TrEMBL record:
This is Cystatin domain-containing protein. InterPro entries: Cystatin_sf (IPR046350), MS5 (IPR006462). It comes from Trifolium subterraneum. SUPFAM superfamilies: Cystatin/monellin (SSF54403). It comes from the Eukaryota.
Amino acid sequence: MAPPRKKKPHPPRLPGQKFATLDEIFDANFARKYRSPSKPVGFEKDPILLDMLIKCAKLAIGDYNTQHHTDYRFVKIEMATFQLAYSAIFHVTFECRNAKINDQYTSFQATVYHNKHTRNVARIRIKEESGTWCPGILWELS
């Protein structure tokens, strides 16, 4: 029987390196400045990636509408970061319009897991309401 493998030690922090909090994960400037586990997504020039983020945002806002009995409609992606794990974890900030109240626009933040076969919402919140995350319940096939 082979001896157990030794664990590699974690690499030391770089000068100025911080570990991101959940709020900071949604900040692309934070991800650029510090070596956080999240990386900014350059979706502006990639139509396939933009389409993927739009699908994630629409699923998330559908989840929010289902749980809160509201009628928000997706408008645009504001920014996004991602992490790679078993699947891609997208942290998306997007704008929605309230279909019941004219000219009311609200920004939302959502964490969506996306892999080759499925997409599911982990959590969503209104951007200004820091700390009040709603757990996601919806998922769909990709």
